[in-house]
Amino acid sequence: MIRSRSRSARDSRRGVRMFSAVVALTLSAGVLAACSSDESDSAGPSSSGTSAPTDAFPITVEHEFGSTTIESEPKRVVSVGYTEQDILLQLGVQPVAVTEWYGEQPDATWPWAHDLLGDDKPEVLSVSDGFEYEKIAGLNPDLIIGTNAGMTQDDYAKLEQIAPTVGSVKGAASYFSNWQAQTRLIADAVGRSAAGEQAVTEVEDAYAKARADHPDFEGKTSTFTQGEPYDGSLYTYPAGLNTDFFTELGFVMKPGLEKFVPEPDSQALISAENTDLIDADVALFATETQEGFDALMKFGTVANLNAVKAKRAVFTDATLSGAIYFLTPLSQMYVIEKLVPLLDAAVKGESKQSFPS
C-alpha cells in the first residue's frame, strides 16, 4: 500500500467521495436534532484531557477555508484527518473519534501516542469512501479537526453544518502542511496555544541536539523512498516534501528528482531503469514487511546501488516507517530516537542491509 497523501493518491477515490458528499446532503434535520447534548454526555469516551485550556474562549482561528470561531472549550472533538489524533492527545484533548489512515493500529492510534488515550476508546472513522458525515453527525461533536484531511471546499461546507470545523493551514498542500503550523493551528483551536508551542519547541530542540551530536551528518546527500515498488515505480520524496526530518539533521536531499514528479505536492515516480537516481551518501527506504523488502531488492538496480553495496542504505520496520510518514511532534520524537542511530551506522558504512527482524 502506497503511503502517499498527494492528490494522485486520493483522486482514485474521488468519485466515491463525491457520491458520499451527495448522500450527506440528505442528512435530515431530524437526524441532527436526535444528537442532543443529553445523549452526547453519556456516549463515547471521556473528553477530559491531561491539561486544561490556557486561552480564553471564544477563539477564532484562520485556516484554508476562512475562519472558524469556537465559542467555548470543546468537549467532543472529532479528528477527520490522517494524523491529527497525535497532536490532540499530546495537548491533553481526548478525541471522541479518530480516523484510520493505514496500519490498523488499535484505536487508529500508533504506539508513540496510544498510551495517551488511557482507558478511552474513540470511535474509528474511515475515509475509504469519503467522510462519514452521518456517523460524524451522530457523535454530536462541538469541534471537527481536519488539518491533514485533504478536504475540499464542498467537504468543509458539509462538515461545518455539523460543527465548527478547522481545515488545513492556509496556503499549505492538502496533506503536507508545515508540521509546526499545523500543531499551532490545532493548539489554538482547543485553547492550548502554550502547549502547542512547547510541543514544537521540544521537537526542534531534539533535532538540534541530534544534529550537534552527529557532525558527520552535515552535508551528506540523502534520499527517502517508500519501501516497495507500486505499479512499476518507486515513490521517492523530492526535497521539501516530508523530508524535513533529514534536513533538520544536517543532510542534503539529492537534487534532480523534481522532474519525475507527476504533479505538485506528490512523490517522484522512479521506474526500474532509473533506480540509480535514488543513490546517495545515505538512502532511506521505508520498508514495512519482509515481502516488501524482497520486492524492493529485486526492483531495477536497487540491490546494486552504491549505498546498498557500501552498507549506507537504511531499511525501517513498519512502526518507524509510520512515524516518518505521520510527521507530528510525537512521531518525530520517535523518529529521532529510532532513526538517528540507524543513520549514524549508515554514514559509517555499518548499516545492516536486511529487513529489521
From TrEMBL:
Alphabetized Pfam families for the sequence:
Peripla_BP_2
Q: Where is the composition biased (Low complexity)?
A: 42-54
- The signal peptide here is 1-33
Question: What range(s) does the Fe/B12 periplasmic-binding domain occupy?
Answer: 76-347
Superkingdom field: Bacteria
Q: Does the keyword Signal apply?
A: yes
GO biological processes: iron coordination entity transport
- Places the protein is found: Cell envelope
Q: Which UniProt keywords apply?
A: Signal, Transport
Q: Where is this region: Disordered?
A: 36-56
Keyword set includes Membrane: no
Q: Name one GO cellular component term.
A: outer membrane-bounded periplasmic space
Record-stated family: Belongs to the bacterial solute-binding protein 8 family.
- Protein name per its UniProtKB record: Iron complex transport system substrate-binding protein
> From which organism does this entry originate?
Williamsia limnetica
